[in-house]
Amino acid sequence: MEKIGSVAQKTIEISFYLLFFLVPLILTPINYELFEYNKMMLTYGFTIIIVGFWLIKMIAGRKLILKKTPLDIPLLLFVTSQIVSTIFSIDRHVSIWGYYSRFNGGLLSTISYFLLFYAFVSNFPQEKIKSLLKVTLASGLLVAIYGILEHLGIDKDIWVQDVQNRVFSTLGQPNWLAAYLAILIPVTLGLGLTSILNKYQIPDVKTKNQNLKLKINNWSIGLLVYWVIGIIFYATLIFTKSRSGFIGFWVADIILWIILIIRFEINASKLLLYLNISFVIICFIFGSPFSEINRFTLPELTSNKQTKINNQQITKPVGSSLIEVGITGSDTIRRIVWGGAMDIFRHYPLFGTGVETFAFSYYKFRPAEHNMTSEWDFLYNKAHNEYLNFAATTGAFGLGSYLLIILIFIGWNLKTLILKAGDANEGSQPKMYRSVGIRERQDPQIIITILSLFTAWLSILITNFFGFSVVIVQIFFFLIPAIIFALNGTQSDNQEEKHITFNIQQLLAVLFIFFVICYLLYIILRLWYADVVFADGYHRARSQDGITAAYQSLKKALEINDSEPLYYDEFAFPAAQIAVAFADDKQATLSSALTKEAIIASNFAISIAPQNVNFWKTRTRVFYALSQLDEKYFSDALNSLEQAEILAPTDPKVKYNLGLLYDRLGKKSESINKLEEATKLKSDYRDAFFALAYLYEKNNQRDKAKDSLKYILSKIATDDAEVKKKLEELK
Q1: Which of 115, 209, 504, 644 yields a CA-CA distance of 20 to 30 A from 139?
Q2: Distance of CA 578 to the CA centre of its chain
Q3: pLDDT tens digits for 33-88?
Q4: Domain limits for position 405
Q5: Dihedral of CA 523/529/532/534: which sign?
Q6: CA–CA separation, 200 vs 231, rounded Å?
Q7: Cβ partners under 8 Å of residue 423, min gap 6
Q8: At 731, which CATH number?
Q9: How many structural domains comprise the chain?
Q10: DSSP line for 1-35
């Protein structure tokens, strides 16, 4: 059994190494979502392996291996809040699994991070943490190098986005990459500082107010290596043009150096000067995400040249972060979305609308002013502020427990890091801080490593304020505290186990756990493959002449994973289209079978997620298509869109389509009313104004029809040929 315990321990360690190395790197071109979905599935896989072998290790050793931490109570409260919110969720499926394509943030992902936290604290050897951090930086270095190559145009023809302008490397979005790098840079600086420590002394604990005195070599090969890595990370962060990541790093960096100077009696001025001036130089060379800073950068100074055009002097400010004409600024959109999140919280103050249900609850409380932004037709599945997102989806219970984790961890670190040697008497400290011996707390290498990790963790709090956590950032949010507690604790209990008599019960238990591990990994692989097949069907459904192939792929995806409502929703419309095509070909039997399939699929999707606005919109399309076979389905289409209007009362597109459906039924007044409501919700809605002019004309209100057309030409599209032609016809 000793060998089984040793194998289990080794498997846990290797799995953590691979978790930190592979998750930032993994992506595939064959999934519905290339980045986050794969990272989440990989995290689930490693969680299963780590927790499974942790159980095997305990069975082999016949003892419970679970260490206490200062975050035990807040973490338990947080997980409880997520469970309660899921129970009362408006979409329990999404709350359990997470919003499809991301999955991060669902109850299962939170439980995974929770288990990984305790698995690390209880099993990972303290002496191997530095190696783990090096592996983490090695992965980050690959990510950053690819980001720099992106900036140089290595894959500019692959992506729709202007990846040269704002890189995202293997993370999938510039702000996510920036948040990741803002975490890595302080860790890099910390390891660089520990590499130059060649001697330290432990002060007499009886001497009051005596700090550690460090004797350091100013330079070493190790420091230079980490310095170069830090520069690569920072340059890549600059290429993301992410303001949140930029702020997050600099706040973390400033706090790191302030605590470092307070905590140690060292002459850090040169190191502080050299390391941070290198970052300033990078800003000067490449610019920053802020136009106020860019006025003093090289791109602005060299490119802000005056050019004579048509005898007029014009200035082209290059390097500044000007907003493209017609594109609403992110600050404006965030303010609107945050307002909607607060409205949700006010209506669901205790437990929110359910974990990860923001995409659906926001529709109901979506401010009408959102319709006047360039992203008026975008789906927002996050509040773009982690704290407001928790408030809206998990209420005061979820947000409160989340903030409790943050406050207790900050307090614990400040107490540990700024603790004077003379104040280190264990008996003088609150119980929650008494976790280690004096000597270990005073080891400067450990203290500096903890400090760098803590400040890296603080950067997450800032980037989350302007966005939301993705898989790798969430891993750091939960596991950086675990790493710090492991560093600050006594040596890990990984010494050789005493001989334990083997018995058949232990063997059977180990075999059972191993079988469960294999089975759960099989489920993860099956879910992943179903997503690959679904992605193929999804893209084929949107290509020309791809409906039949889309139908086949989507049906296969459902055979692999028959519990995902999105698959049913996506399957329903191609089935309806093919049903209509078979009817046109006089194949009534096949048409009837496909009609039933389409209706059953739509019914199933709605039964699982009745609050999903998009499912009701799809249902409208399905029944509208089927109404070509039988007029009775038109009323189902209308009822579906009316339900969508209830769930999304400020969505002008829903009202626009309702107006068109009412017109087909000959309900003139209802049709005009809905189109007028659409134009009030979105005053630049060209199609709604044009349709309204058509209905006014049908209703013998020619003056109103002209006014609608003139409004388009004066306020929306001055050169609209179709509108001009229609206006001429009305004269």
Answers
A1: 115
A2: 36
A3: 999 999 999 999 999 999 999 999 999 988 999 999 999 999 999 999 999 999 99
A4: 69-89+127-302+328-488
A5: negative
A6: 28
A7: 208, 209
A8: 1.25.40.10
A9: 3
A10: -HHHHHHHHHHHHHHHHHHHHHTTT---SSSSSSS
